[in-house]
Amino acid sequence: MTALTVNGMKRESASPPTTKLLDVLRGEFGLTGSRFGCGEEQCGACLVLVDGAPVQSCGREIGTLGGRAVTTIEGLQDHPIIAALIAEQAGQCGYCLSGMAVAAAALLARTPAPTRAEIVAALDPQLCRCGAHPRILRAVERAANGMPR
Amino acid sequence: MTDLPKSLADNPRLDRWLRFAGGQVHVTVGKVEIGQGISTALAQIAAEELDVSLDRLTWRAGDTELAPDEGSTSSSLSIEVGGAALRLVCAETRALFLAEAARLLNTAPAALEVENGVILHDGTPTGHDYWTLAPRVSLARDATGAVAPKPRAQHRLVGTSTPRRDLPEKLAGGGFIHDMTLPGMLHARVLRQPRPGATLAAVNEAGLAHHGARLVRSGDFAAILAPTEPALCEAVEAAAPRWDNCDAPTPDMAEAAWLATQPADVRTRGSDAPPPAGPTHEATYSRPYISHASLGPSCALAHEQGGMLEVFTHVQGVYPFRLNAAQTLQRDPESIIVRHAHGPGCYGHNGADDAALDAAIIATLVPGTPIRVLWSRADEFAFSPAGTAMQTTLRAVLDDDGLLIDLSATITSGVHVNRAPGRLLASRTLPNAQPLPPPTESSDAYPGAGTRNIVPYYDIPWRYTHHLVAGTPIRTSALRGLGAVENVFALESFLDELADRAGIDPVAYRLRLLSDPRARRLIERAAAISNWADRGPAGTGTGLGLGFARYKNKSGYACVVVQVEADTGIRLRRIWCAADSGLAINPDGVRAQLEGGIIQAASMALKEQLHIDATGTATKSWADYPILRFSEIPPIDIELMDEADEPPLGMGECTMGPTAAAIGNAAAHALGLRLRDMPLTRERILAVV
User: Number of helices (H) and strands (E), helices first, in chain B?
Assistant: First the structure.
């Protein structure tokens, strides 16, 4: 049993400790916003925050997360990045957007007023196949303008 | 009677499309959301013609029980054909309701109008609306197409950038087929036949129980079932299947040049006259095998119960898939219900159909148990259909000024149309498998597939020979743009070579060959916004290149200009695109499709190639298949031409060829050297230098 906090709520996972956090979130907790893209920490679709730091949840074992705080896209619904992504219509299929939003939230937490280059660097590990990149960048800038300074 | 759009001619009954209940308009369509925003654009059309607000629409797309059969959501036809059908259905339905209201009110229909579903007379509610009148107005009748849709001047929703209706749910943690569960479902994965014709010799069945998993098998079709996704992944590892009778392809087969050595079905079209005498120029261009590389792997759910098989899938066409599954499973199509659910970005015939057939077959082997299939990333790269490698050779005859007066093309290509029953992956592994039916792609039917856009939009005589190779080393099918990506890359690169040889500016050269005024305006606009006039000499390390096409020579127009820096690599610096969509139903949606096509085509042109080794597709992960990232994508300026009095045109694929060509031309301008084989990698540059 692993006790952790998910989106501000105490949760216990009964999964074996080697189970990947993504499988716990989706399969055990029913939190489907973190997407399965590759299972190899290469695409970023499953990105979550662990104690505020971006982590590819497909590669992180649940047994390492006792007492840690995990934030998923479901826990970021009031973050300005969500409204900004919609305002910029920054998605085509939308499959990458959970990871994009989480990456943006991690960036804005440490750099509330990022430059374009800082945004690009923060999002560069995240893959998008539909070509929504320009809109996603604008959305992060828009969200930054709505962040408390 | 008007000629009805195909979608309506095939599904003429109005009640197949619309139903009024509970204060909502229940709209059912066959064209499905695949990330292109079609469910929003079609909703705008329906709400516009019915005079209701968008939130009055309840939408269902792609469902063999409920929705009309509009074939496949493909070929940039959803607005042109599906939208045209829905527009006529809604216009005629509105007229039927107004006629009934007029009869009840003893007035003329022309004296009435509709506001958000409520019938008004002189601006005052009449006490009637769509829902009170619905019991009196039968939609169990065929459309006539005789009611004219609204003129453009009356549009309130069409032509506006309405936000995507599906995005909020997808940003709130749901929205995809991957998020669906069925009570009591098991997770399943097929042990994939590594090569066509391979036979399953052994599976470590004893190793499965430890994971709570089991094997189901029928001939060479074998799948593992497990209670959870992680248990399934471990069990699939433990299963360690051994296959016999695998052929062993070689790495050279991944190159387009290999195709030209293969037996082919050869067909010729175009001018019967032999090319005239004169100076000639000839060049050969190619592209390799390309992956759809959707961000999420293919997924499907299926449930066999009480003689009915229900399948949830993200295929492009639920009815074509139903026929396919019925033939493979040897059962009545009416005993199968196929329902579309949203998947990751779909750019053509990807693995969705195969995953759906996997789930369907497994469900029939374990009746009563719902089955969920999710492919691995490695299977997605290795086994979903690829966009085929192609080689295009062009031969020009020139006049004394170096102007193109005659064009001959030879195309060598694998198939781009490969979804016929019996050709999906699992079909060939079943005990009752029929011999693989031949591919159905035609070299002749306009607008073609491998031959797409090889017919120049320029005013010159042409002929082409199409070598269709059925025996590609990896399975191929339709991928965004089909043959037009390679053919436009070839043709527009070739035009720059001819312009260079003639000492004429590439834009001026094109305009001398082109009569369509819309195309001329488009190219002139693209040249203006990109400061083409200041382009400067070749070979400076910075280059500006242009590519133009009208997709299928009858759909969306795009002219793309790209600025690059090039030395031993090519870096995109800026991209401009002028596009003509006719009436844009949703201008921001059009822009999104244009931007997406540009970025995807740039990624293909610069980076992408599937590799082959003795096991088949050697490409198994994103590490093997880099795509363009944020840091590699330059600013993109899109300019929509104002041609809104023209009918709407499909825009999803029109930028693909022009972008690839513009990058090739910009690289040639920067380097003073021509690269004719995609992807335009460092290795290719060094080979030419």
Answer: 16, 26
pLDDT tens digit string along B58-81? 999 999 999 999 999 998 999 999
Residues 290-319 of B with CB under 8 A from A: 293-297
| pLDDT tier at B276, thresholds 50, 70, 90 | very high
Look at A130 and B176 and tell me if their CB atoms are within 8 Å.
no
Q: How does pLDDT run across B619-659, given as a tens digit for each residue?
A: 999 999 999 999 999 999 999 999 999 999 999 999 999 99
Q: Find where tokens 């374990």 sit.
A: B366
Residues B319 and B459 in one domain: no
Cβ distance B35 to A94 less than 8 Å, yes or no, reads yes
Q: What is the pLDDT of residue B441?
A: 83
CA distance B199 to B182: 33
Report the alpha-carbon distance of residue B185 to residue B368 in Å, rounded.
9
What is the residue extent of each domain of chain A? 2-75, 78-145
**B254 contacts chain A (CB < 8 A):** no
Backbone angles phi, psi at B637, to 5 degrees: -105, 125
Closest A-chain CA to B172: A74
Q: For position B520, which CATH number holds?
A: 3.30.365.10
Which CATH number is associated with domain A78-145? 1.10.150.120
Q: Is B551 found in the same domain as B466?
A: yes
pLDDT at B478 over 50: yes
Domain that holds residue B184: 177-245+298-374
Residues of B in contact with A6 (CB under 8 A): none
Residue of chain A nearest B173, judged by CA positions: A33
Which one of A72, A126, A131 has the shortest CB-CB distance to B596?
A: A131
Q: Taking the model in full, what pTM does it have?
A: 0.98
A30 Rama class: left (phi>0) / alpha (psi -120 to 50) / beta: left
The gap from C-alpha B540 to its chain's centroid, in whole angstroms, comes to 37
CB contact under 8 A, A27 and B596: no
ipTM (interface predicted TM): 0.98
User: Measured between CA atoms, how close is A37 to chain B, in angstroms?
Assistant: 5
